UniProtKB/TrEMBL annotation:
<keyword id="KW-0597">Phosphoprotein</keyword>
<feature type="coiled-coil region">
    <location>
        <begin position="215"/>
        <end position="245"/>
    </location>
</feature>
<dbReference type="GO" id="GO:0000155">
    <property type="term" value="F:phosphorelay sensor kinase activity"/>
</dbReference>
<keyword id="KW-0472">Membrane</keyword>
<keyword id="KW-0812">Transmembrane</keyword>
<keyword id="KW-0175">Coiled coil</keyword>
<dbReference type="InterPro" id="IPR050398">
    <property type="entry name" value="HssS/ArlS-like"/>
</dbReference>
<feature type="domain" description="Histidine kinase">
    <location>
        <begin position="245"/>
        <end position="462"/>
    </location>
</feature>
<dbReference type="Pfam" id="PF00672">
    <property type="entry name" value="HAMP"/>
</dbReference>
<keyword id="KW-0067">ATP-binding</keyword>
<dbReference type="InterPro" id="IPR003594">
    <property type="entry name" value="HATPase_dom"/>
</dbReference>
<keyword id="KW-0808">Transferase</keyword>
<dbReference type="Pfam" id="PF00512">
    <property type="entry name" value="HisKA"/>
</dbReference>
<dbReference type="Pfam" id="PF16736">
    <property type="entry name" value="sCache_like"/>
</dbReference>
<dbReference type="InterPro" id="IPR029151">
    <property type="entry name" value="Sensor-like_sf"/>
</dbReference>
<dbReference type="InterPro" id="IPR036890">
    <property type="entry name" value="HATPase_C_sf"/>
</dbReference>
<feature type="transmembrane region" description="Helical">
    <location>
        <begin position="154"/>
        <end position="178"/>
    </location>
</feature>
Length: 471
């Protein structure tokens, strides 16, 4: 309501100013016009002496102007007087003050009532000169009501135009306002939806102005918030799975150790051979517990970015020795390990034990997923400024939706695997961390039914630099 009143007040003020300007402009133009015509009459009067010709000229001009024309001498006596059609002659002599101004020898403009008269007139006069002497004046006048009608007509058009402009501008403003406010309403709804837990809410962006950029920022914030919330939820699930998996991995060997230890303690062993078997199982399960704890500690050390004893490592030799050591495990499963190594040495800067663990974990993973009579290929090479080694198996492959998850701690493709020696799901997580602290990168490519290829990239023959570009 306040805005409407303000608009109306501004409109009324602007109309008042416009009316005043129109009135002043019209009076000024009318005065200039009358003075110009009066000067023409004065010029004609000085050149023409025939009264009938002068009267005829005044009659024609009076009809054209719609105004009365008078020529008076210096004493104020009318020499010629031509009233406008339908109008009575105006005797300015009834107003001595005006008559004095008219005969003063200067151009005069007057608008208003004559003394002793009820009629409003608009008058303009110019001096009539002969031999540089004022001998009289030429006066042109018309009723002011006629001029006011014209002014009022112009004001009506002006007011009508202003009203039309206000209506059009109001409609246009409403359209622009609605167009501007609609995205803001949508942003408000989106913000409320996000506050209520609908993370990832996106807005449709139809412009590149400030509102459009604000909507894009809200979309980015919503997407980032969704990613972070999902990451937090995923991390929480992983923590829960971590507790569950660690508890499970610890429970199995502890149960076996407790069972065999109690049997020995209660003297339930029937023979030395059985006693040896029980002790062997206790030792094996203790070793499994030790390996699990060592893996967790090692992963924690890798996450802290700590790598000890860095040196130059020849990968050809490392891959050859590790492949030979793993062939015994592969042969037991009827799996063949093949190597493809270049003749020239390829050297990297790193910790030999950690790099050996990377290759061992990848080979162990490949062998465990390759069926009997299958093959595992180990390849070493150079790509640009990077050394790489790839381990390819001929197993069942990894589903595309699982590729991002295999690097998580305790993650297993086969959730039902809990048999002894099946692994605790830390191998690939350790691989990824070891490679990252060596300023490298590990990738995986797989197609279901055609096996998987794990490729490790490491900087060639130089200490790792912070922020080194990955291949």
């Amino acid at each position: 309501m306040a805005i409407v009143l303000l608009v109306l007040a501004v409109f009324a003020f602007s109309v008042a100013i416009q009316a005043h300007q129109i009135k002043s402009f019209f009076y000024d133009q009318q005065a200039r016009f009358y003075i110009y015509e009066a000067e023409e009459v004065a010029t004609f009067f000085r050149k023409e002496e025939r009264p009938e010709v002068i009267q005829e000229r005044l009659q024609i001009l009076s009809q054209f102007l719609g105004a009365s024309i008078s020529i008076m001498d210096k004493q104020g006596k009318m020499v010629y007087d031509q009233p406008a059609s339908g109008q009575q002659a105006t005797d300015i002599g009834v107003d001595p003050g005006l008559l004095e101004k008219v005969l003063s020898g200067r151009n005069t403009v007057f608008a208003g009532k004559l003394s002793g008269s009820e009629q409003d007139i608009f008058l303009a006069s110019v001096p009539l000169r002969k031999d540089n002497q004022v001998i009289g004046a030429v006066v042109i006048n018309s009723p002011l009501a006629t001029i006011r009608e014209q002014i009022n007509r112009m004001l009506s058009f002006a007011v009508l135009g202003a009203l039309l402009g206000i209506v059009l501008s109001t409609v246009l403003s409403m359209v622009i306002f609605l167009r501007f406010i609609k995205p803001l309403v949508e942003m408000d709804k989106a913000a409320k939806a996000i506050a209520e837990g609908d993370f990832g809410k996106q807005l449709q962006v139809n412009s590149d102005d400030e509102v459009g950029r604000l909507a894009l920022s809200l979309n980015r914030m919503s997407a980032q918030l969704k990613e972070k919330i999902e990451a937090i939820e995923r991390l929480d699930r992983l923590r829960q799975e971590l507790v569950s998996d660690v508890s499970h991995e610890l429970r199995t060997p502890l149960t076996v150790i407790q069972g065999f230890a109690e049997a020995l303690h209660d003297e339930m062993v029937k023979s030395p051979t059985q006693e040896k078997f029980y002790l062997r199982n206790i030792i094996d399960e203790s070793g499994r517990l030790k390996d699990l704890v060592n893996d967790i500690l090692r992963l924690k050390s890798m996450e802290a970015g700590h790598v000890e004893d860095m040196e130059y490592v020849v990968l050809n030799k490392l891959l050859n020795i590790t492949a030979e050591r793993m062939r015994q495990i592969a042969t037991a499963k009827e799996v063949t390990i093949l190597t493809k190594l270049p003749g020239e040495p390829i050297t990297v800067f790193g910790n030999i034990d950690r790099l050996k663990q990377v290759l061992t974990n990848l080979l162990d993973n490949a062998i465990s997923h390759t069926p009997s009579r299958g093959k595992v290929m180990v390849e070493l090479g150079v790509q640009d400024k990077w050394a790489f080694f790839a381990v390819k198996d001929s197993g069942p492959g990894i589903p595309p939706e699982e590729l991002e998850n295999i690097w998580e701690r305790f993650y297993k493709l086969d959730k039902s695997r809990s048999r002894r020696g099946a692994g605790c799901g830390l191998g690939l997580a350790i691989v990824k961390k070891i490679v990252e602290v060596h300023s490298g990168k590990v990738t995986v490519a797989s197609e279901v039914g055609k096996g998987a290829v794990f490729t490790v990239f490491l900087p060639l023959n130089q200490p790792p630099e912070e922020g080194a570009d990955s291949p």
